[in-house]
Amino acid sequence: MTATPRCAIVPPYLLVRLARLDDPRFAAAAEAARRSLLRDVPLRELRAAAHPPPRTFRAGTARERGRIDRAVWDATGLERLPGRLLARSEGWPATADPAVNEAYDGLGETHSLFWTRFRRDSIDDRGMPLEASVHYGRKYDNAFWDGERMVFGDGDGQVFNRFTRSLTVIGHELTHGVTQHTANLAYEGQSGAVNESLSDVFGSLVEQHAAGQGTAEASWLIGEGLFTDQVQGLALRSMRAPGTAYNDDVLGKDPQPDSMAGYIDTEDDNGGVHLNSGIPNRAFYLVAEALGGNAWEAPGQIWYDTLTGGNLRRGVDFAGFARATQAAAATRFGAESREHTAVASAWHEVGLGQSLVAGAAAE
Amino acid sequence: MKVSVSRSGGIAGIRVTWEVQVDEQPDARSWRELLDALPWDETEESAPEPDRYVYRIRCAPHEVVLPEPQVAGPWKDLVDRVRAVNEGR
């Protein structure tokens, strides 16, 4: 028998209020409420309790744009979503669980990049609540976007640590949500690799923006710190030098190509979406390197305009995406501007060269 | 008779392959029963989901490619069993 009190009789809104108490005198009650939230309460009610309307909300008034609304769920080792426990909702104090806190903070940093730099109000630009589920599955070596939320495994402890450890991975998953709500690029072949690359680009920018790092200081690594000490490798991918992130006797060598000369034709991984993404990743890095300063400024703006501008076909290929970024650069900064030229040169260097493209892209 | 499971994709994009020589297993008969009962010809096309795994499962003359959400029931039993043999569990 367990000594944990069962609070099925307490309505969820009250549990949420209890769980939110930040007064040290009520710390035990708050913790107990947090733990019992969701044990016996129907999921629908708990979801509503996880995202209560703000106190100032009145029927008929517009919600305040840019207001963040997070919820982190604990899947408690099961493969059911969102999970059994509401571990932390907006405004709740930090918990004793680092995975919960990393997910919560990472949601905040990602929201901050998209809102403060690009005036995007959450994933759908309409204030969609940001959700994460942690402790998914047993020794689960992955993180993914399920169409509604980001989901994180704990890793097996031998090759992978928990997946919330890297802010780039959190930004990567949420960007899949942004892509889903904008260009909705098909997740296979070249459009899938562009989809992957956009997640790496904005995942990396979330980390750089949070750390205040310019292009020269940034690591340009995706998933730094995910590998355990037993693995010979720094990260999952390198945007600056694709193919160099790891070289391990068990995992093998990082297979990412850094230009079209190394393009990989494969049926695995939905047509190599995590492999060939190295090519557009490096193109973005080269734009940032050429322009210097902070990559979330001009380079990030050009890529954001491309993603959200409505000119990308769902099945766009690399060449079409390259043309679209050039058109976006010309539209925002002017034809033959420094930014426009940097974008054209970057694509040329990764083997997707063409004459300077200006105006609206055909893709 | 050999069964192989190759997992690709995931956010890491690292491919892992596990193989089992069925005839060398102490419980070869139960392996064969599991393999014979799998719905090899009943897999459905579905849209790929970001960062989920893709499984390619081979046992001549059969081969299927399954997205992670479809690896459930007997397919999950098979994958777990193949991994367990390879990981010495």
Automatic annotation (TrEMBL), chain A:
Superkingdom of source: Bacteria
UniProt keyword annotation of Phosphoprotein present: no
Record-annotated Peptidase M4 domain positions: 89-180
Pfam families: Peptidase_M4 (PF01447), Peptidase_M4_C (PF02868)
Biological process terms in GO annotation: proteolysis
GO annotation, cellular component aspect: extracellular region
Family designation: Belongs to the peptidase M4 family.
Name the UniProt record assigns to this protein: Neutral metalloproteinase
Source organism (scientific name): Cryobacterium tagatosivorans
Automatic annotation (TrEMBL), chain B:
InterPro entries: Emfourin
Pfam family, one: Emfourin
Name of this protein: Metalloprotease
Organism: Cryobacterium tagatosivorans
Species lineage: Bacteria, Bacillati, Actinomycetota, Actinomycetes, Micrococcales
